[in-house]
Design brief:
5 strands, about 5% helix, globular, five-stranded antiparallel β-sheet, OB fold (Dihydrolipoamide Acetyltransferase, E2P), single chain
Length: about 70
């Protein structure tokens, strides 16, 4: 896993339990599944635009978030 980065939830489908994160560093969006959250309960309350911190792994279909934490401001 790479260094931790920040971004914002681009969209998240609660029924399908996945979505994408727009990275703050301008690199390509990252796939995120409910199971990728440090605390899965955070995924139930996500909204578009929420700030998150995460690591990035390279999966078969592209970058995937790992250890996602919602940043509460």
């Amino acid at each position: 896993m790479s260094d931790r980065v920040t971004g914002n939830i681009k969209w998240f489908d609660h029924q399908k339990r996945y979505g994408f994160i727009r990275r703050d560093d301008g690199k390509p969006d990252v796939f995120v599944h409910m199971n990728d959250f440090h605390d899965r309960m955070d995924a139930y309350w996500l909204r578009r635009g929420d700030t998150v911190e995460f690591g990035v792994d390279q999966a078969d279909k592209g970058p995937r978030a790992q250890g996602v934490v919602v940043v509460h401001t």
